[in-house]
Amino acid sequence: MAERLDVVIFGASGYTGKYAIISSINILKGYKWGVAGRNKQKLQDTLKEVEKKTNQELSSIPIIIADINDEKSLKEMTSQAKVVVNCCGPYRFYGEQVVKACVETSTSHVDVSGEPQYMETMQLKYNDAAREKGIYIVSACGFDSIPADMGTVFLQEQFNGTVNSVETFITWGFTEGYKPSGASIHYGTYESAVYGYAHANELGGIRRQLFKNRLPKFTPTLKNKPFAHKQPVIGDKWCIQFMGSDRSVVSRSQRFFFEEQNKRPVQMQAYISFGSFFALTTTIFIGFIFGILARSEFGRRLLLNHPKFFTFGAVSHEGPSEEKNANSILGMYFVGEGWKEKLSEPTDQFDAPMNKKIITKVTSKDPGYGATCDALVLTAKTILKESDKMPNNGGVFAPAAAFSNTSLLKELQNNGYTFEVIKVEEK
């Protein structure tokens, strides 16, 4: 049998897959990597397109034919790789087949899913098998969960005390002078959100099986902020609770730190900000309609057949333009509160009020796709280089649980992400 490639990008001819190829050119220098998908011509065309954009010769990149509906072809693909970078979503429909093939062929797997039902089901069904095979299955390896999960770890490392809670606030903007137009979100991301919302009621049952033991109650309890509020930390911008997967992902990592590493888990809540009250109210209106329609099959068909109409042009099958991606900037602020003193045991409680606060920030350009795929490919590279620093000799993990003891945080900083401390306050 031929030696395995280090990395195979599955779904490489898709929107996200193309960006993963671009990221791999620099990040995977010195490694053997290939691309995979069901249509050879589309894969060849994608490689030629990337060649023109990057002025890099890609004719020698191996091409593997694999179809999500053909189990044999998936196993043939995964058996040729040490790590599969899976860009084929929505993962609710197309993720488990690849994970299953990876487990059966002892191949690690990373993806950019933001779908809690899928991620937690994979942990429930495949964690033990992945550990037995000595492989890692890690989801949520892009925007926005990598900044949220690794950003929380960064805050904990900088705190020098005991962190009780963290609140995150997402800001989204553009480089000075750039006037954005056109879609901001690719249809695939939108489709995942539609089905994720429609099946959110599944999470309770999954979590009761996955997390059989409740965490101890830690005080003071982090309370949710008002539905819509202004946040001084980010210049009094309007904020609402962020309905993405950040809280789910961070909570899984923090539970792992408590159960496996005897560390006090951080309570977390996520919010997203808006530049104006009009933008806030427009988003709430879209969200209200989205929530009603996503509950029925007929409503979901409407949402999926007319994405531009129901999002006022924010979503399209073509996705955002390359110019818009390149000029996009993500800021994620973290407000951590706790005590400057340290506890001897994670379940110990403080009698005194919290006396320390820290504000940190993660920033990246082109967060939705370019920086997402940089982070995705970096996670694959980290598994190749530093699996000895990763937990339990294998398993299914959220990003911070998998990579907190590796150099991933440093590598993110070397590849366009900025992690910084803004302010520290002590009483």
UniProtKB/TrEMBL annotation:
Name this polypeptide is given: Saccharopine dehydrogenase NADP binding domain-containing protein
InterPro entries, alphabetized: NAD(P)-bd_dom_sf, Saccharopine_DH-like_oxidrdct, Sacchrp_dh_NADP-bd
Entry keyword annotation includes Transmembrane: yes
Organism placement in taxonomy: Eukaryota, Metazoa, Ecdysozoa, Arthropoda, Hexapoda
GO CC terms, sorted: lipid droplet; mitochondrion; plasma membrane
Key word Transmembrane present: yes
Family (UniProt): Belongs to the saccharopine dehydrogenase family.
Family annotation (Gene3D superfamilies): NAD(P)-binding Rossmann-like Domain
